[in-house]
Design goal:
15% of the residues lie in helices and 31% in strands. The chain is of the alpha/beta class.
């Protein structure tokens, strides 16, 4: 069901209309064509470092001939090996625009290179380059890897030339033959793992190889691509297309240009609404207003897909009757014929759709229900429920009744709360119907967690379902209407169904039930939402998450000072730092004699002992970093906003600090800064939750830039060696902005220490980690705020393209690591993590934290190459993780598919007592969860929200996208017995 919208099934599963009923047959008659005309480029800088034996060679990133390149040179040593490759691993491999590269169109690989050699007979002339794919990833399940051509090396068909820019062509499609065809039978797949072998033989000692880009394209680069103008036709109906009528609209587009899909503006069939456009040639589904690159290589044709659009708002009559003896017989069952009669009276009350012959041979025109059946047939609402025969006298089951309701309810987009029923098979033909009806609140399961799909539905159950669909609520009147319902659970539902609006027994539902905030902590708030969710809609659950998040912000920002919270561990030795009232000439021992800066503190701090506290006055900004010491407490005093620890050396909004270069709109910072990761503009110090704050776009080699001369877009920056360049189309940035904060590669708090507390501080504006610690026991981080940090290169300029930056990281041995009641947002990489090789970690707890707009929220990876690692007593409970992969760190690097909210993606060490409960996992551009099969964690009672078709995650080795099956997969693979799942449909 991946890559399907929840109600898209209506167009096939329940048909739609007599027009759309023809669609499968017509489409089957057309010869389907897949995308066949495409071109996507990947910068060679995106290829990772060497893999294999690199003896005798050194690789780096540099600028050559005005291009950003990956270079390869001899290192001066005699011993050499050419058995190495450049390696890239991504899910999936993105091109320079962040788009995945389909295997179907990767017919040829074109490598742009420059081989420089001073030798009379250059050694590499004629050298061919090789490529191994290794893996592809499924088009509808990005978390799923498929082995592909592991042992097949595709070689360039031409050899290298020297001392000029040239291209090598690798005939990817020709070399792989049936291997590629067989893989594509799985559906669309994308390139994922790539190994690039640059050398067949040694290069000369003074030679250099520069690789600029790698392009994947569908046509042979040695031939004319033949870019042509195409016609894309949009018809008013499938019937018009079949009859050869003129299209309602034709859009002209050239190959590889982008086409914008038009609105549907023709007349609609009776009781139908336009849903989407579908290509006759490729089955591609498009919505009006969306754009895509036209890669078909021929004209295309789109026809509209319709769906039922029934208006129940004017249904004011009764729709069932009692019996002549004054009873209703609520536990009696209803027949298929009765069900059709009831539902048709709601959808087609005037009988406009009735008439004509029914396709069912076991009913006759004189039957009392005949016109009702023909009405529903014209809506496509019965054909897939009752196949060849209607069998009108048979009692209808719960699943069949729900299928009929599903067929006439339309595909209203929104937030669908999906339920888990232990006896509903996700592969069954009624699964989507049950999920939809449950999500809309039309049906409930039983107390034992079952749905009982094959039970024959009772009259009481049937009217309850319909009343919920109509929004009817009994108001307490008319309770003597039937003699046999006085003590029945559905008494009010029965009265409302058998009464008209004029009878005054029912009203229309006007408001949804809302989440009620309970308790005094995030633990209380989240468990209450989980409990209340049974009676809440998907919309109400999402509003509840918003309510909880806002309350958590208030709780975190409103915590008392550190001396109140940790009085028992603070001794007499206290240092006070005050930006407003301090002086670095003071001793810092009292608030009245406070120091002013972190630098002043470091000059006074000598061998601090256990119990020493370092307190920053609230309302101040303290620029710089410090190394933590064992036994110390770092926190706040005074009143106002939490004290800010900033990695920015100063406010750079000074026009004298910026000099215009020889490139228009590009300015150079006169201060020497190394490895800039982040620049933010006009962020007020007291701005909290400024998710949309203005920030710079880093162009650090892996963004396909080699020099500041290539900066062209506003607020792009290029950081090389000790110089920072910034493009500002609005003039000198020092005059344009009131505040510019710049973060370089500096951990604000670093080192390795035990028995420390970090409390009530606000960390921001560094290109590295806010808190990056090595080994240490009993490390406590509480009540802190972390924002706008990360982005620096993990290594030195020219040596790597990997950027990084976490809020709180521990990468050493530990016994006791606690992160509680913190707020983290706009973090380049990860909010909270523990990680490393051959480490022994235990007693780790992440609780009641709010993490938003981070690339990853919670991360764990642990390996033991020397068999020395372990992880014990870990818990991550009562946290809210939201909008992963939608923050600045993901946007600037175009890596949404690799973002994750909850990731224990590698756990190769012995482990015990791992727990994750009552977390909120609310939307991610990549993985909601990525969980290693080896991680035996007690994982339960979470609240999940994800957009339909996006990645649910890697569920202990099982790849899954977010769809109606998600609660079942979470139960099956993650063992979450009570998942609350909200699917956001479009």
């Amino acid at each position: 069901m991946a890559n399907q919208k929840m109600k898209k099934v209506l167009s096939v599963f329940l048909a739609i209309s007599m027009l759309i009923l023809c669609m499968p047959a017509v489409f089957a008659a057309e010869e389907k064509v897949s995308d066949a005309f495409a071109q996507q480029t990947v910068s060679a800088l995106s290829l990772g470092a060497f893999e294999g034996d690199t003896s005798g060679y050194i690789g780096s990133l540099e600028s050559f001939d005005g291009k950003a390149v990956r270079s390869l040179k001899r290192d001066g040593k005699t011993n050499t090996s050419t058995n190495f490759n450049y390696f890239h691993y991504s899910t999936p491999l993105p091109d320079d625009n962040g788009n995945p590269i389909p295997l179907s169109t990767a017919n040829y690989i074109v490598i742009e290179y420059y081989y420089a050699s001073p030798d009379e007979s250059p050694a590499l002339v004629g050298n061919k380059m090789g490529w191994i794919q290794g893996r592809v990833t499924s088009g509808n399940r990005f978390a799923e890897y498929i082995e592909f051509a592991w042992n097949t090396r595709v070689m360039s068909r031409n050899g290298m030339v020297a001392n000029k820019w040239d291209k090598l062509v690798l005939p990817f499609d020709e070399s792989l033959g049936n291997t590629k065809d067989n893989t594509l039978r799985r559906g669309e797949v994308y390139l994922q793992q790539l190994k690039f072998y640059p050398l067949e033989k040694d290069m000369g000692k003074d030679d250099a190889l520069y690789i600029s880009s790698v392009t994947f394209q569908s046509w042979d680069p040695d031939t004319d691509p033949g870019f042509t103008e195409r016609n894309v036709s949009f018809y008013a109906s499938l019937e018009d297309y079949e009859k050869g009528a003129a299209p309602a609209k034709t859009v002209k587009v050239k190959d590889l240009e982008y086409i914008t899909i038009p609105e549907f503006s023709s007349a609609l069939p009776e009781n139908m609404a336009f849903k989407e456009w579908q290509s006759v040639k490729t089955d591609k589904i498009c919505s009006p207003g969306t754009s895509y690159q036209f890669c078909l290589g021929q004209d295309d044709i789109y026809v509209p897909v319709f769906e039922v659009s029934a208006d129940f708002s004017n249904c004011e009559t009764s729709y069932v009757n009692g019996y002549e003896d004054g009873t209703f017989k609520p536990q009696n069952n209803i027949t298929r014929a009765e069900a059709c009669k009831i539902i048709a009276s709601l959808v087609d009350p005037t009988g406009k759709l009735s008439g004509g012959a029914s396709s069912y041979q076991d009913i006759k025109p004189e039957d009392w229900f005949y016109s009702s059946v023909t009405s529903l047939e014209k809506l496509g609402a019965v054909q897939k429920v009752f196949a060849e025969k209607l069998l009108p006298s048979e009692k209808i089951t719960r699943k069949e009744f729900v299928q009929l309701i599903y067929a006439v309810s339309g595909s209203e987009a929104g937030n669908l709360k999906l339920s888990y029923f232990s006896d509903v098979n996700s592969k069954s033909d009624y699964f989507e119907a049950v999920m939809f009806a449950s999500a809309k609140g039309f049906v409930n399961g039983y107390e034992d967690g079952t749905f009982k799909p094959n039970n024959e539905i009772t009259r009481a159950e049937a009217v309850t379902v319909i009343n919920r669909m109509l929004g009817r609520e009994w108001n307490g009147a008319g309770d003597t209407k039937f003699s046999d319902i006085s003590d029945h659970w559905a008494k009010g539902q029965i009265i409302a169904s058998a009464s008209s609006k004029a009878d005054g027994t029912w009203t229309l539902k006007t408001a949804e039930k809302e989440y009620v905030l309970e308790g005094a902590s995030a633990k209380d708030y989240i468990t209450a939402l989980h409990t209340q969710s049974k009676n809440l809609t998907g919309d109400a659950i999402r509003r509840g998450i918003d309510t909880i998040s806002e309350q958590m912000k208030k709780d975190i920002l409103g915590t008392p000072n550190t001396t109140e919270l940790y009085a028992d561990r603070i001794g007499k030795n206290v240092y006070y730092i005050s930006e407003k009232n301090g002086n670095d000439a003071n001793d810092g021992k009292t608030p009245a004699t406070a120091l002013k800066t972190i630098q002043g503190l470091m000059s006074k701090l000598r061998f601090p002992g256990k119990g020493t506290a370092i307190l920053f006055e609230r309302g101040g900004t303290y620029r710089g970093s410090l190394t933590v010491n064992t036994g110390l407490t770092y926190g706040s005093y005074g009143e106002g906003e939490k004290p800010i620890i900033s990695g920015s050396n100063k406010n750079y909004a000074d026009p004298n600090l910026w000099v215009e270069t020889d490139t228009p709109n590009v300015y150079r910072l006169t201060d020497a800064l190394t490895n800039v990761g982040i620049i933010v503009f006009d962020h007020a110090d007291n701005a909290h939750g400024n998710y949309d704050g203005l920030y710079g776009q880093p162009r650090i080699f892996n963004k396909n830039i080699a020099t500041y001369k290539e900066l062209s877009k506003d607020l792009e920056f290029f950081s090389c060696a000790n110089t920072l360049y910034l493009c500002s189309t609005g003039g000198n940035p020092g005059s344009r902005f009131k505040d510019i904060e710049i973060g370089t590669r500096t951990d604000l708090f670093d080192g390795g220490a035990s028995d420390i507390v970090i409390d009530n501080l606000h960390f921001k504006h560094t290109g590295s980690h806010a808190i990056g610690l090595g080994s240490g026991d009993n490390v406590v981080v509480t009540n802190c705020e972390f924002s706008w940090l990360g982005g620096s290169l993990l290594g030195n300029y020219g040596e790597t393209t990997t950027q990084y930056g976490n809020a709180v990281e521990l990468y050493g041995n530990c016994d006791g690591y606690y992160v509680r009641n913190c707020w983290m947002y706009q973090i380049y990489d990860t909010a909270i993590t523990h990680q490393g090789k051959n480490l022994n970690m235990k007693n780790i707890q992440y609780e009641e934290n709010l993490m938003e707009y981070c690339h990853w929220a919670i991360e764990c990876w642990m390996t033991q190459p020397d068999s020395k690692g372990s992880l014990n007593n870990y818990s991550a409970n009562y946290n809210v993780m939201r909008n992963g992969g939608y923050g600045w760190g993901t946007i600037v690097t175009k890596r949404p598919s690799t973002s994750m909210l909850y990731a224990t993606y590698s756990l190769d060490v012995p482990s015990s007592n791992l727990t994750s409960k009552y977390n909120v996992l609310d939307r991610c551009a990549g993985y909601l969860i990525n969980y290693a099969e080896s991680a035996k964690e007690d994982f339960s009672c979470h609240i999940y929200v994800q957009d339909e078709g996006m990645i649910l995650g890697g569920l202990r080795g099982k790849a899954a996208n977010a769809d109606a099956e998600s609660p079942f997969l979470l139960n099956k693979h993650m063992k979450d017995e009570s998942p609350v799942f909200v699917l956001i449909t479009k």
